[in-house]
Structure formats: C-alpha cells, structure tokens
UniProtKB/TrEMBL annotation:
It comes from Bradyrhizobium ivorense. It is found in: Membrane. The gene is metQ_1. The keyword Transmembrane helix does not apply. Residues 1-20 form the signal peptide. Pfam families: Lipoprotein_9 (PF03180). This is D-methionine-binding lipoprotein MetQ.
Length: 260
C-alpha cells in the first residue's frame, strides 16, 4: 500500500505531461528571418512540451490586431517603439515577454553605388508607418543628410525636417512594398526581412546602414492576460538558447543580430 501514493503521483505526472505536450500556440510572424528563426525554435519548444504553429502575415499592422483579438497567442515581428505606438493608437493590451534580434535597417539603390551619387532632388522611399519611417529619418539625420526638429523622439515625420540640403523628395510606401519601389526611386529604405525576401544582402548591398545598437531590438509579445502563463516561459527560454543564437549568426551572417 505504501507504493499507492507514488503510483497515483506518477499517473498524474504522466497525464500532466501528455496535456503539456498537446498544448499548441499560434505565433504571428512576418515572412523571412522572423519566420526562419521561429522554425529553429520549434523543435526546442517541443522538447519543453509546446507545439508552436507559425502564422505568417505580410504586413506590420495585422499581427497585433490578431493577437489582441485572440486569433494568435503571441507574435514576433516588431520592436518596442512600434509596439508602443500601436498600443497608444489602438489601446491594445499587449506586453513584451522577451527580446529577440535586431535588424539594422538599410537604404538601397539600383541606380547609384554610393549615397554621395544621389542627385539633388532625388526620390527616396521610406516606410509609411510612423515607427519605421521615423527610424529612417533618424538614420538620415545621423548620417548628416537632413536635420530634424529638436525633440522629435523616435517617430519623426517628413514634416519634422528642418534642413534638406539636397532637396530630397520623400515617398512614403508600405514597408512590404519597399523593394518594388527600387525601380522608381533613387534609393529605398527597406527593412531587413523584406530586403532578404527580395534577394538583397542586408550587409553588403545598402548604401547607408543603421547602427545596430539602439532601441530597435525586436521582441516577443503576448496579451497582457497571458504573460504569466507557463507556455510563455517555455517559448522565451526556447528562443534564448545557444542553439538559436548559433543559428542566427550562421544563417544571416551579420544581417540579423541576436539581442539576448
């Protein structure tokens, strides 16, 4: 009889393990590196009893709406300034649970080999969302191309440009469409995931490139109501492993940088 409690406990643990192994979560990602990295995370998470299913979104707007609505349980595609902007504008109750990687944004051109070759009055496309568009303007400011009003923070717009010596014309486009703009402009700012999808090398091809240090580290986000659930820790711990870090460094060769 003394073994009966042990047997009961073993049965309960077996049942718990089966249930844990059956737990499935859907994670929203954008195509390219975010999806590729999560594919590397999946088998590690599975060892911890978490079945990860990836749902790809072609833009930056829908993943937070889907998360807030409960259509997915987490997403991995955005940085903190972008999430802050979405929460302020839309009232999402979404929280950060872990950092992922950084994608230094680049400015590319099919017409010019160097930024110095961009002519006066040249057209430069930038993403039309406040965070990524502002990020490019800050890059151009830091490179001495333009000057911005003081106190613009992380979300300047073209209206905040106070000096534009080359009289550049800024064309705002959806971030996902930026590679297609290359044929129509002198230069295009393109997020790394969309650049790699278009066959561009985010390390060698940009004529200007963002400093990889800064506030634009990407993250894993979940609904505030879920942030303390056990599966969240399994997911984050699975991402923050030496195996995933090695995958990022080997696969992307400096275009994507681990941030944990």
């Amino acid at each position: 009889m003394s073994f009966r409690p042990v047997l009961i406990l073993a049965t309960m643990l077996a049942a718990w393990s089966a249930n844990a192994a059956a737990e499935t979560i859907k994670i929203g990602v954008t195509p390219g590196p975010h999806a590729q990295i999560l594919e590397a995370v999946k088998p590690i998470a599975a060892r911890g009893g978490l079945d990860v299913q990836l749902i790809e979104f072609s833009d930056y707007v829908v993943p937070n709406a889907a998360l807030d609505a409960g259509d997915i349980q987490a997403n991995s595609f955005q940085n903190q300034p972008y999430l802050d902007n979405q929460k302020a504008d839309r009232g999402y109750k979404i929280e950060v649970v872990g950092l992922t990687v950084n994608f230094p944004i680049g400015v590319y051109s099919k017409k010019h080999k160097n930024w110095a070759d961009i002519p006066d009055g040249g057209k430069v496309s930038i993403p039309n969302d406040p965070t990524n568009g502002g990020r490019v303007l800050l890059l151009l400011r830091d490179k001495g191309v333009i000057k911005l009003k003081d106190g613009t923070g992380f979300k300047p717009t073209v209206l905040d440009i106070v000096e534009n010596p080359k009289k550049l014309k800024f064309v705002e486009v959806d971030a996902a469409q930026a590679p297609r703009a290359l044929d129509d402009v002198d230069a295009a700012a393109i997020n790394t995931n969309y650049a790699t999808q278009a066959g561009l090398d985010p390390v060698k091809d940009p004529i200007l490139r963002e400093d990889p240090k800064g506030p634009y580290v990407n993250l894993i986000a979940v609904r505030a109501a879920d942030k303390d659930k056990p599966w969240v820790k399994i997911l984050v711990d699975s991402y923050h492993t030496p195996e995933v870090k090695e995958f990022v460094l080997t696969k992307f060769k400096g275009a994507v940088l681990p941030s944990w």
